[in-house]
Amino acid sequence: AQTVTQSQPEMSVQEAETVTLSCTYDTSESDYYLFWYKQPPSRQMILVIRQEAYKQQNATENRFSVNFQKAAKSFSLKISDSQLGDAAMYFCAYRSARGGADGLTFGKGTHLIIQP
Amino acid sequence: AAGVIQSPRHLIKEKRETATLKCYPIPRHDTVYWYQQGPGQDPQFLISFYEKMQSDKGSIPDRFSAQQFSDYHSELNMSSLELGDSALYFCASSPTVGTTEKLFFGSGTQLSVL
Prior knowledge:
By secondary structure, chain A is mainly β. Chain A has no helices and twelve strands. Chain B contains no helices and eleven strands. By secondary structure, chain B is an all-beta fold.
């Protein structure tokens, strides 16, 4: 079974600064997807960014980018120019690419605080 | 753009009662997933359906059952409710073609068992 570990229960960053959230995972599969989801106080789950394991290039979405290290099974999220609206719980998630309707496996989450 | 619709948004039940949660996936999404998120917890996968058939099963209690109907909407039925069932229940859907690995989440149903 796959596991996802987020070792930082809480992170704090000054507005406009850069912050990196850590995520490691364990799997025996070679093909899979990794995601970062954001859950603001409204509790809506919002997809931030996704990475295909077969792609070496790191995914980027505006101020959000990842550092995907497949051999190390590491998938960190970097948020540049942090904004107050970035304050939320961030969940790292894994999904197998083997087909079927496997669900996502989530980490425990990191609570991101943005200080004005 | 249409999103995943869940109803009701909030539900209050007494212990030992039953509850039914509904989920309407995005049009042309044939796969539906149910997740349970307890207070301060990460979402836990319960069950999924593909083309109206149960596809995968996670940590779903025997007191819970679910199904997907011909119009692809899904219902999660919960019986003999316990205090520990109080949680946010998410439904998500994913498309048949294209980015099939992406799950789109609804806003959730907050269930409170008193």
